What we know:
Helices cover 24% and strands 26% of the residues. The chain has 230 residues and is an alpha+beta fold. It has one domain (42-220). The strands form two sheets. Strands 1, 2, 3, 4, 5 and 6 form a six-stranded antiparallel sheet that branches. Strands 7-8-9 form a three-stranded antiparallel sheet, with helices on one face. A hairpin with a 5-residue loop joins strand 2 and strand 3. The longest helix is centred in the N-terminal third of the chain and has 55 residues, at 13-67. Residues 85-95 have low confidence and may be disordered.
Amino acid sequence: MKIKLKKHNGFTLIEVLISLTIFVIFVTSISSSYLYIAKSQREANAVKDVYSEIRYITNLITDEARAKTVDYACYVTRTFTGEETEIDTKTASNTCRSLTVTPSENYLALVDASGIHRTVFKYQDNELSLYKEHYTGEVWMPDDGYGALGAETEFRKIELINVKINGLKFEISPLADPFDSKNVACGPVQFQPSASFYLNVQSSRDDMSRFTLNIQKSITSRLYNVKTST
């Protein structure tokens, strides 16, 4: 009686080594792709967060400047005559009637068509702050969330997480109230009030520390024939 032995086919050592090598290469390739995609996603999210805050700053100023108009009561401007053909400069040597802003501070004062609601942006010591108040018919009072005049909390700092402001400059145009009867004959003043700002921001994130951006924008008020000078 003959007994037939079954032949068991197996892998040789070389075949096992080749298979392991291919598997390692495959896993390494997948891992590298995943790490690259994850890094790209983190960078994209970081850029998104930075631009989101930049848009927040610019939209905040733009929306207020467009809905309101330059409050010339918060600026001292030269008195012009019809014989003058040029405006030299704004001489901002006074404060608003109620705000504790000084000539050395860089600010933008805006007021609505009714002359009741005022918004002031102030940039000082690399910080942008905001103040809002309303006129009761007798005195100006801070809106809810803003401190009493002269208090440390009068202006509310605009908190930023992903960016820091290295420079911000506000400018108004024209340099005198175009709707003031004294300036009707002055050609250089006969323009719709507008506000401009020049902004330099830098990312405050460690992974985007070299990111900087310069922004320049001018916003023309949508309010017409509103006299704001005193």
